[in-house]
Structure formats: structure tokens, C-alpha cells
Fold this protein.
Amino acid sequence: MKLVSFQVRTFRNVVDSGEIEVDDDVICLVGKNEAGKSALLEALYLLNPSYGEVFDVDDQYPKWLLVQDRRQGDPSQRVPITATFELSSSDSEALECIVGPGVLTGNQVRIERAYNGALSWDFSTDETAAVQALVSQFPDQLKAQTQDVGAVSDLHSRLQSLEQDDEENDESPEEGDEDDDESLERDDEGDLSGAIQAAWEVIDSAGLREFGLDERIIGLLEEGLPVFFRFTNYSTLPGRVDMRTLSSSENEGPASSASQTARALLKLAQTTAEDIAQEGYESRRGELDAVQIDLTNQVFEYWKQNTELEVAFDVEPVTTQQPNGENAVIRYLQIRLKDRRTGYSNNFSQRSSGFQWFFSFFAAFSEFEDDDRSVMVLLDEPALSLHGRAQGDFLRFINDRLAPTSQVLYTTHSPFMVEAERLERVRIVEDQGPPLGATASNEVLASDPDSLFPLQAALGYDIAQNLFIGPHNLVVEGTSDFIFATVLTTKCLASGRTGLDDRWRMLPAGGATNIPTFVSLIGPHVDVTVLVDSDTKGMQRVTGMTERGLLASQRLIHVSSAADSQEADIEDLFSVDDYLDLYNRTFDTGIMSSELPQGDRITKRLEKLSGRFDHGRVAETLLRDQESALTDVTLDRFAALFQAINSTMEL
């Protein structure tokens, strides 16, 4: 049975959440703090909780509604949670085997739980189909007498009536030839009382003598109703565990205590406290080695922050004196982490809080994999103590280990817990205050920008990551460089000259001063070539990239390498007349080359003559009119620059 939607009403800060669709195995509730995410999760959990918790009107009913609603009736009769489930094919087959095919006329059921704990079910049935399924199994001599019945209760009445008639016919009247003839006739038809008994057995096997049809179907559906496990604060695995607590037979739920988390850890490693506490050293050491190797392999399949760690176990015997004066040995399981890079090891409790949480979570949730019941896992703000990339590892754990066997619903306000490629899983939660309260929607139209921030951040991060995935990345200072390189590549190729290789992914850094930071963020992970003007502001920082190993020196290309001067901007690759033509068309001027002051850089010469100008607007003119004729000097210079850039592709 799979949850397909739920709705929360009059619960904490929720008046009516609206129908929340659950159309995937993993659903994420996103919103800012106090938006109502935890309230939605808690209400859903209390529909069928794993540990027996119940609704509490005094604690959970919206305070601003409680007094007025009491005037209108008993708030404990209100229904805070409604959920719709879809039956799996195995659910339907199991149901049909007992009450007959076609009895449940749809594959969805709706369930509600009131504050007083009353559970109600809503589904549609065809009772005639149930009766026909029963009658089809009756002895032939009863079928004709029962096939016109349309309800199970009427079928009971019909069989009871036939029983009564049969008993009356079985009474011993005065002996006579006529009675003997009737007896012989009934014997020829078969034993009617036996047939009736057989019919009752059919009804009993379907469970429809003691229960009505709806009641029986509810009983069968309850067996497949998912149990909800809700986790907020997990019991962190201790670094030192008293073996006596591990050997206890307490039946605790997953993560309900530190000891239970430790027991789950041993179960994950397919061992027991008794096995690792054996008296013989070699036997005990062999078991511990096997356990720690297995756990290291499992845990570090998902923990990627430091893959050089390994789990280490030891049993510490401690001799204590008992009240009677005798000595007793108490054994403690020591859980340690060793860093293979340094050989240093320390107790698990001394590791980072993020790793302690992840490891404890991993152990606690392993119990779900062996649970025979249908389970839905509810996680409230999980993985908050983890680094952003570790949160990604945790999401992979959810997708790989939990989702294949259990639906998962979690809340978050961390962008790293939002999968940008799976935004259909996200539901936006907002609290609009009284009288509306908290609502949830899968439409990204939230009125509060803070609610959308995790999605925006996740999308921005995803775009940035995808932007840098290409194997060949060319970083330029700004959009002007981007435009000139793009347009001139087309013109150079059209004239038979060299253009930029089409494998380059060109990335404007948003300014020369941003280049070092830009390259620092992406350089170590992908191949980057940088194109800079000769007078780039902060050139020392730019060249420092090569000194610090962030960028190979051959990958730092200066525009001046293709110009006639050692001091050159990308605009200086144009012949003076070509650039003046673009400048004059941009600013509606008529400056001639003979009017320009002396100097090396065309932009500085124009600024001396006419004042500062927007270099980008000149580039836009070329972009709008790409048919502009350019001289061979310009094309040759750009072709030489492109050749230098392309040569770094093979480094």
C-alpha cells in the first residue's frame, strides 16, 4: 500500500494544508523555520505511529481556534489527518483471494484519524460481487436458492432460513408411506444440511460470518497499512558501550536509545554481543576484525568526506568489586575510528558531530531493511550537522538504501538537501499566519522569497556545477571578450583562418579582478585556460595563480601575444580603423584615426580624446551587425590568438 496524498487540518499552526501529493518514493518539504514542516510530518506520523503515540487536543489543536471550536462541538471529534493510499497489485490480489474479485471497485482507499484516536476508512465496494464469489463456492444444490441474494447479511438470512426449513423437515412425523417417499426424494438430492454447513464454512473462510463486508475489508487493509517511523533527534551511538546492555532482550524501536542504536550496529554487521565477547582471544579478535571490515566497507560507500577512515572495534575488560567483595569483569565495546593516512585513531565520540550523526543514522536505519511490515520513513530536518557534500552523500543513502523498500518524506531548509534534478519531489511549505495557517504546495509560486531560497540556492549550485563540467573551459574577463571571441571565430572560420575550437566552453568571470577567485573555485577540478588583457587590474594576483599551482603557466594567455604591442587589450586586436568604425557607429561620432592621441591602447587613446566610454556597447554593435567588414589585419590577429588558446587544449 502506497501513500499518494495527505491533508492536515487544525493541527498546531495548520488550519488546512491543502492536498499534498506524494507521487514519488521520496518527497521533500521545503520552507523556512517555523513554516509548519514539522507539524505536517508529525500529523502524518500520528496516522499510524510506530510507537503508539496519540493526538492531544490540548497540546496540538491550534490555540487561536480552540475556544471558538469548543462552542461548536467537541474538538476531539475533529480530524487532523486524512491520507489516500493506493493498493499495490499484491494488496489487491490478497484481498481478492479472500473476499472475491471486483469487490473493491477502486484501487485507492482514504483513511482519517480523529483527535480522539478514531480511525475511519472510505472506499467503494460492490457487495453483490462479494456474494457471487461466495455463492460460486457453495454446493450446487444451494446455488439456485442463493444466487439472487445481493448482500452478505441477506445471504446469512437465506442460509438460516434454509437451515430452519431443513430442521423442520427432519423432524419425525407420524410414520407413513408418504413420509417415506419424501425422505427418499431428499436423499436423492443429497444431504441439504451438509450442503448448508459447507456454505457456512465458505463464509467463515472469508471471515464474513463474524464481520460485515466493510469491516472485513478494513481488517485486511490494516495488515498492509504502512507503519510510520518518524525521526527527529537520533540517539547517537556511544563510543563506549556496556556489553550487558547489548545483551539485553529489550524490544526497543529503531534509534529509541543509544543502546538500541548499538544493537542495530551489530545487527548490521550480522553479529551479536555474545559473538564479540567470546573468552578466547583469537576467536574474539577474529570476530572483531570481520565486523570492522564489513562496517567500514558499508559506511564508506556513502561517507565520502574522508574515505581513509576505518572502523575499529575492541573489547575492554574492566574489573570491578561487587558489594559482596567479589571481583567481576565488565566488558565494554570500544568503537574507534582510525585514519589510515596518519595511523591515528580515537574514540568514536571524539569524531565530528556530523560523522557521529551519519554513522548512528546509518546503524539505526539498517533495521528497516529487515522489517516485514510496510514502512514509511519520516525524517525531520535530517543531516543538518553535515557538510554540504556530505548531505549529498546522505541523499544518495536515502535513494539507494531506503527508497527501494520504503517511501521517504523529509523536511529541510538546506539547499544541499534539495535535488535540483528532481524538483518534482519538492513541496513548498509556508505559514501565512491566522486565519489561514500553514499550507503546502508543489507549485513554486510561494509569496515569501525566504521559502524559495533553498530551491534557488540548489538550482544555482546545480547550474554552476553543470557549467563547469565541460573538459575544456576558457575563462575571459567579461561579456565584451565573450562577444568578440564568438563573432570573430565565425569570421575567421569563414575566411579560412583559425577560430576557437568548438569544444571550448567560454566562461565570463564578471571582471578581471574576479578571475583568481573564479579559477580557485573551479581550477583544481577541471581544465581551465585563462585569457587576460595586458593591463588587467591586479595582474599580480592573476599571475600568482600559476605560482600557487592553481593554473599551469602555459594556460595563462595574454592578449598581447597576438597584438603588435606589449600593452594590449582585446580591442587592440582590431586594426585602428576597424575599431573606430565600430566606435563611431555605436556613439554616432565621426572620429578619424589621424585625430587620435599617441599611445598603444585604442581604448585609452579614445578616452583621452572623448572621455570614458562603455566598452561593452561597442561589442554589442558588432554582435548586432556581424556582417561588418573587417580587415585582414584584424582577422589575422584574432586567428593568432585563437591558435594560442587552442594549443592549450592538449596540455
About this structure: The radius of gyration is 39 Å.
